[in-house]
Amino acid sequence: MKKLVSNPKDVLSGLIMVITGIAFLVVGRGYEFGQASRIGPGFFPALLASLLVLVGLAVGVKGLRSEGESIRAFATKPTLLIVAATLAFGFLVRTAGLAVASAAVVLIAALASPSFRWTQGILLAIGLAALCSIVFVFALGLPIPVVGPLLGR
């Protein structure tokens, strides 16, 4: 008996991307899209959400046409660590600053990998914290503290 879906991982991944993209398009409807000469705040999110829908459709169709692995167990620990990293950034960026928040994201998210090594994680965290500070605060001039009031600034 032939399976209806021969590559359920890709089909499910594509479906998740399509649903997420549509959700962002729906939420972003209230933002002004603008015109070609002067784009509004809703243009870039709508563009990214549309691209996510297109990529999701491509991945899903590929999953319907190809053979692949079946879905096994849900990776609970890595998923929770990625969500925790995102929440940590949100809580830390204003209180501890961009450098600490960026480093925390890298270290927490890296714990989700089975090949995580502390020395590599710390070096990557320091590098990303420096790069984010240089690009977003110094080059683009965003009003985000590099070191926040929690650390005495």
TrEMBL record:
Transmembrane segments: 12-31, 43-61, 81-110, 122-144
Full protein name: Putative tricarboxylic transport membrane protein
Residues annotated as domain DUF1468: 13-145
Domain of life: Bacteria
Organism expressing this protein natively: Chelatococcus asaccharovorans
InterPro entries in alphabetical order: DUF1468
Protein keywords: Membrane, Transmembrane, Transmembrane helix
Record bears the keyword rRNA-binding: no
UniProt xrefs under Pfam families: TctB (PF07331)
